[in-house]
Amino acid sequence: MIFRRNRARRPLPRWADIAVVPLVNVLLAFLVAGLIVLIIGENPLRAVRVMIVGALGNSEGIGYTLYYTTNYIFTGLAVAVAFHAGLFNIGGEGQSYIGGLGVGLLLLAGDRALPLAALVPLAILAAALFGAAWALIPAYLQAYRGSHIVITTIMFNFLASALMVYLMVNVLIAPHQMSPWSREFAPNAWLPRADEVLAGLHIRAAQSPLNLSFVLAMIACVGVWAYLWHTPWGYELRTVGQSEKAAIYAGVKLRRVIIVAMCLSGALAGCVGVNEIMGVHHRLLLGFNLGYGFTGIAVALMGRNHPIGVALASLLFGILSQGGAELAFEIPAITPEMIIVIQGLIILFSGALANLNRSFFERLLAIGPGA
Amino acid sequence: MAPAEPGPPAIELRGIDKRFGAVHANRAVSMQIASGSITGIVGENGAGKSTLMSILYGFYEADSGEIAINGRPVRIRNPRDALRVGIGMVHQHFVLIDPFTVLENIMLGAEGGVLLRRGKALARQELQRLEGEYGLGVDPDAVVGTLPVGAQQRVEILKALYRGAEILILDEPTGVLTPQETDQLFRILQTLRARGATVILITHKLREIMAVTDEVYVMRAGTVVAHRRTAETDIGELAELMIGRKLRLELDKAPAKPGAVRLMANDLVLHDERGVMALDHVRFAVHAGEIVGVAGVSGNGQSELLEVLAGMRTAESGRVQVDGADITPLHPGDPARMRALGVAHVPEDRQRLGLVVSFAATESALLGYQRDHAYSGPVLLHHHAINRHCRTLMEEFDVRPRQPFLRCANFSGGNQQKLVVARELARRPKVLLIGQPTRGVDIGAIEFIHRRLVEQRDAGCAILLVSVELDEIMALADRILVMSDGRVVGDVARRDADERMLGLMMANARPADGASTA
Amino acid sequence: MQDAYLIVLLTLSATIRVSTPLILCAMAGLFSERSGIVDVGLEGKMLGAAFGAAAVSAVTHSAVIALAAGILVAIMLALIHGFASITQHGNQVVSGVAINILTSGLTIVLGIAWFHQGGETPPLPQEGRFMPIALPGAARIAHVPVLGPIYAHLIGGHNIIVYVALAAVPLTHWIVSATRFGLRLRAAGENPQAVDTAGISVAWLRYRAVMLCGALTGIAGAYLSIAQNAGFTRDMSAGQGFIALAALIFGKWRAWPALGACLLFGFLDAVAIRLQGIDIPGIGEIPVQFIQALPYALTVILLAGFIGKAVAPRASGIPYRKE
Description:
heterotrimer; A: about 375 residues; mainly alpha; B: about 525 residues; Rossmann fold; 2 domains; six-stranded mixed beta sheet; 18 helices
């Protein structure tokens, strides 16, 4: 079969675009990961089984899986919202770090004075505001000074990290403490764990870090979906991402949209702080954000920037994270870092090499009725 | 017929044929271009001139036909092949590297060795020789991005000469030049001819053809319709040949009953990114209940005019008035404000401006009106109303397929356009700005859109119609403005206008010139 | 006095050692970005090469073979980036991020599987590393005041890769400014269409640039694991690839200014370590993190156009499609 070069390619049908192409991309990533497992000298199919049983086989595993999922939803949505505006936010890592700082500062100040019912909305607000603020500067520089958002958000990740180390080591460290940890919050500032809530409903579940911020993540999915597809602002944001010229034609204020999109993105990433600081660690510490921001890129690419896709992709990465930890017990040769490899491969196949698979399908479908 | 030809023609084209899908861009084009001559090729937009030259320069390959250079048949598959047989091209949009010096730009691809130092010295010598021969007046060490447009063009010419081009193709070379720079260019072309080079000049400016060429080919609808010795023709004949006697679009319409002034432009001035004056003190008025057509070869300021009137760009000086409301550079309009004032805009480029190809039809049907209270509450969009609205538009304008949730990319060009026109007309605007309303639209849809425009006019809308299709202007307009080089060079009532006269104005020749020779 | 002098010298000497991987990566990025391919994957290529070099060194005990292995790994990664960016017209930033994440996981997974030491390679023997070279006569003139220590500690006392890095700067400058390849490279980064109409393949040009970039990051990676250190440790590149990227931007995509930025950033790092816990009269203790954050902050300020203007090659990041 010879393909003529100037033959006009038809756009892919919707089913192929939404389901088949992304699935094949993910499959390719897993195929390569399987090869790596083979190279290590282990059986990839056994690894998959161990992972699935470890992640979903009992209530503890499920709890851990969903706890990871929560973080991935936040950072995945963060990347997706920016993507819809045509912006690549690599700064989820720093924004979630600073979001956590916001939560920590609020709780350190108010945990003994306020009840949980007041602390929860305030903590969410603090996480969102701090995360948004960390995204605001790169957004402003992109909108008004033309600095490239990719580079500035990378730099802001490192700046966030330096700031946090300074604050934890020099300012917020608890007295008489060697590790750079803040004091523990009073228990009334702890976000209830899922197993505690379920126990209240007479459902028994093993203890796990899964907490109520999972509900917040679900709300965030619905909120992002409603914002992007059901408000005029979301409509304008998507128009900017698809065609700046059309947006100008439609009377959209480009700069304002860039700033709003990035602040929303930062706020979502900041919510990782609610899960980690208020829900799990109950104190401010270093490195609680590690890797979630970058995984968000893989999640968004795999989920096609749609909240439902992001939620599903987050679940998959949650399974991988928890299953990967189990895997390390059962098959010591395969370490939890395997999931980082899979992330990298997914970003490569669903993102950088997205055209490869797509053009293959376009050709495949062109042969059918066209030839 | 040929008077004592010394040798074979520099270029001979025989039966060149080229299709792009349904478009037959060149059909059986044959030409003989004499060595050491300046030959003009004229024609309207879309006549096939640029395609033909792209084939000659190896950007496209012809579907069939032969090319012979100096009597020898050649195959030109890419620009490198073209260079090898001695063809150089000066594009309408220069292909230069701004931060490079003139010398570096000229050397690129012909560096003369792995190291630049020796090549640079040789190139400098060669440039000095060319400078002595042709007097181009370009400093080899100047940074190209800092040079004026005319000098950049001469760098392009130098680039071709440096590579040993003996045949030079210039595509609309004077569009960006000042009159002084144009004169200088023509002197250079004449020097080139004197030194034995062959020059092909593609232009729509007939006066320039008369001024500098030896022979001229006229193209229309992909074919050569005439070949003349310049000395044996005149502007009037060429204009007529270029425009041709076409199937006139017939449209039943009552005479316009113009009312109050709805849209007024006063001394609008705008420079484009290259610093060329895109709008040169443009002034006119459009009354309620009339269609004013803006005729002109594309790229003479019409696009900028539409963008300024629609609020997408702000003029540097001058004033726009909509129904008495002032828009000046101090109080710039923006598209949202212009819409609120009752100005609707069907942009020239529907694929990039008029709609978003990746959006569903319902979403594109909302473009520009996303904050309208009919479709959006304080927070949420009213999807029911939006979808109903889209369905109504599709019904009224017969958009097919009638699937509001289909992505715009999946509609044909004509149906995309009907959707955009429907959206803009649905608001019963006071002023309608419409650019190229029927570009790439099939005949049935053309007639449909035209009838709708006349209906709007009769309902009291002030319509400004920009089109490069003269027939369209002739069929629709009640009054015709002609734009050339950013200026309004003509303002005539439809009943006083004929195609020949408009063609002359578009070609930047005063009607008197044509009349005297006719 | 004598002590202070020695401290200054040792700080400067440390600056050179810390700057070496930055310089190599900045030059690597220069080739790629001047050709029009944005590279945020310097970090990943360096890390991959560090692992490759250390792993091969652990097996072969040969520094030279290990270096070659490091270069090979980095070139392979660069070719993935090239394939995605040049042939597939993919998003160059996404591709770079993918390579960073992929290598940060893969080096640990393979490291544990092969060496069973928690992701580290075993400590490498001297013959598997590049050791500091004592310049001839250094020991004898070390006691000569002023000049002796300079000769022994600043000019000498480094391993061979340090000198390679320093030589890479004039070499890069020369290639980019004085050779045909360099002219075409710069042209491709500014206006690939001009390169194309001159009859030169943009894709092949960019592939060569990307491979050169890979080779240099490969040397940088090998420096980390088999010269500066005696083996691979997890995430040992520790953001230096990004500092190098910052230095490249800070140097406005030019070789000599980029060297200056690398030395500045390296100096800040060396000083930060030395200043830890020291009270400076009148100022107090300067937080290490403040100094460590300076390169990033300075780069942001530069990008914002507050100190000069950093203009990237015009066509960088945009996939080139032939019309």
